[in-house]
Amino acid sequence: MRRFHKMHGLGNDFVVLDARAQPLAMTAERARLLADRHRGIGCDQLILLEPVEGATARMRIFNPDGGEVEACGNATRCVATLLGDGATIETRGGRLEARLTGDGATISMGAPRFDWDAIPLAYPLDTAALPVAWEGLAPVRPPMAVNMGNPHIVFFVPDCDAVDLGAVGPAIETDPLFPARINVNIATITARDAIRLRVWERGAGATLACGTGACATAVAAIRAGLCDPVLSVTLPGGTLRLAWHAGGPVQMTGPARYVFGGEIDLEALAP
Ligand SMILES: N[C@@H](CCC[C@H](N)C(=O)O)C(=O)O
């Protein structure tokens, strides 16, 4: 039997397994089953904590399709509350620093990257204004690509709630322009310091919130001169505070909730 923690950040929910003291072999199949809302515990991302030299923990992140990915902003805040104030968290996307706040954490999410091969794109294009279009989306400016540890594309539209995310999301996520697939952010700027956002997550679909998506969207808006360097991003699950100055790391602040803990027999999981 393995102990697990069920947590969420703005409704983006996680199963967290702590393998720092007791190793645990994770496979894509096991991650898929744990994340399955009918056959497992159910979550948007499975999080595995492992020991690592020079940081409080290594955080491994699995999407519900079983794919292991580089970054997850909302899960980082949740994990920070388990590890304690001042934790350093190593991810595939970089080493992150956490400070606890009243109801969650502030995470220094690292510096965004913009080079076409860092996104990654399949071939060189201007990531600040991608010369591409997809049916069902009429953005007010060409989309931007931003790597926040993981890959994001950001569209600014007049009303993000009017977009059929379930149609455009998977088409863009799997476009051959993105060899690692991509997280799709559809945003509406409502003030110099406020953005509304809906996200189609790579490997997960539409979620109530995406922390790295909020970071990428804030960066895109600030870089384009559309927003100030400190702003709020409101997703269906709630609001995050973001701060970014060009060349520096993105600071993300928001809540983290512990829902329940339990034990599960990993060997008994089956399709
Ligand atoms: N929910 C996350 C992002 C999780 C990973 C993403 N789906 C990907 O494949 O890169 C967040 O809060 O950032």
UniProtKB/TrEMBL annotation:
Signal peptide: none annotated. Belongs to the diaminopimelate epimerase family. The keyword ATP-binding does not apply. GO terms for molecular function: diaminopimelate epimerase activity. Substrate binds at N12, Q45, N63, G73, N74, N150, N183, E201, R202, G211, T212. The gene is dapF. Its main location: cytoplasm. It comes from Sphingomonas morindae. HAMAP family: DAP_epimerase. It comes from the Bacteria. It is found in: Cytoplasm. Its EC number is 5.1.1.7. Keywords: Amino-acid biosynthesis, Cytoplasm, Isomerase, Lysine biosynthesis. The active site is at C72, C72 (proton donor), C210 (proton acceptor). The record marks H152, E201 as: Could be important to modulate the pK values of the two catalytic cysteine residues. This is Diaminopimelate epimerase. Homodimer. Catalyzes the stereoinversion of LL-2,6-diaminopimelate (L,L-DAP) to meso-diaminopimelate (meso-DAP), a precursor of L-lysine and an essential component of the bacterial peptidoglycan. Pathway: Amino-acid biosynthesis; L-lysine biosynthesis via DAP pathway; DL-2,6-diaminopimelate from LL-2,6-diaminopimelate: step 1/1. It is an enzyme of class 5 (isomerase).
